[in-house]
Amino acid sequence: MIAIPLLAFLFAAAAAEPTPGPTVAREDTMSTEVAPLLVKAPRVTLEEILDRVARGEARRDSMIQDQSFRLTMRIMRNVMAKTPPILMQESVYQVYKKRPDKVRAVKLREWKEKQLQKKEDQKEGGSGGNLDFDADFGEEIVNFAFQPRARREFRYSIAGRDIVGNHLIYRIEFHPKSPLDPTNPSGLVWVDTNDFVIVRQEIRLDRSPIPAIIKGFDHMVVERQRDGDLWVLKRVLMRAELTFSIPKFGKAFDFALLFDDYATNHGIPDSLFTGPGKKPAGAGE
User: Fold this and answer.
1) Mind listing the domains of the chain with CATH numbers?
2) Can you tell me the distance from the alpha carbon of 157 to that of 272, in angstroms, rounded to the nearest whole number?
3) pLDDT confidence of residue 40
4) Residue 8 and residue 1: Cα distance in Å, rounded?
5) Could you tell me which residue, 154 or 17, shows the higher pLDDT?
6) Do residues 81 and 247 make contact, with C-beta atoms less than 8 angstroms apart?
7) pLDDT in tens, 113-168
């Protein structure tokens, strides 16, 4: 008569005071293994990739009938000194383009360091630092080495393949076939195979084209951004190191072009490019 209540009390006490130490869960899931399956398929050749890139870039170009964007140019000096870099010049343009050959660039604002402004004022008709624009939509600064006519000037190799999200990205290196021309660069591009367009490029020059003034160029970076169905320029960055240091300037400077506020195929009227005060294609304002 006493044994049953005593056992019940002991079980209750054991439940109320668990044994100290780690508790190990009991694994009740199932595991299985599947034998690896070797898939044999022909890999896309480098020649075919280059052909697809040329077609992808041409297709991107053909999709644009008119376009406007804002462009900011910045030049920084004193970039290799221990002190912070100094803004030397900043210019902002609104650019309009329309097929087949219409272009207009309106300078929205410009700021120059006092010493640079003073030198420009002393020049007759000088407008140093202004940019020239053309009516082309091809963005050759990105794809110059991947146009069909460039095949005879460069050699190519696949540097790697990466998966970014649901995109397969090819990294392709290019080098000039002839070392005689110092203006022909080497580089590395990132190709998005969803559209077969170049989304990023790094460029370097093994030799300076003007060694008496410029010691060398740190690699230039060109990046694109997605704007609707198109890849368009986002920024161009470059650093140049001078052969000698210039007082109040330093031994190197950074140059940057920043692109934003795109509007593509919105129907820019022809009247924007004609009339008093408008300049012909290829000229900035």
Assistant:
1) 47-273 (2.50.20)
2) 45
3) 65
4) 12
5) 154
6) no
7) 886 666 666 565 555 556 788 888 989 999 999 999 999 999 999 999 999 888 89
Q: What is the DSSP annotation of the chain? A: --HHHHHHHHHHHHHHSPPSS--PPPP--------------PPPPHHHHHHHHHHHHHHHHHT-SEEEEEEEEEEEE-TTSSSPPEEEEEEEEEEEEETTTEEEEEEEEEEE-HHHHHHHHHSTT--TT-----S--S-HHHHGGGSGGGGGTEEEEEEEEEEETTEEEEEEEEEES-SS-TT--EEEEEEETTTTEEEEEEEE-SS-SSTTTEEEEEEEEEEEEEETTEEEEEEEEEEEEEEEEETTTEEEEEEEEEEEEEEESS---GGGGSSTT---TT---
Q: Which amino acid, one-letter code, is at 124?
A: E
Distance CA 35, CA 60 (A): 44
Tokens of 162: 């990466």
